Amino acid sequence: MATEDEPDLLKIFWDHFFKAETGTYEKSTWLDLFLAEFLIRINCGADPKELIKFCPVSGVVTLVGCELLCGLHRVTSSVSHLATPLPMPTLDTPAPLDTPPTETPGNNS
Question: Which terminus of the chain is more solvent-facing, meaning fewer CB atoms within 10 Å of its CB: N or C?
Answer without folding.
Answer: C
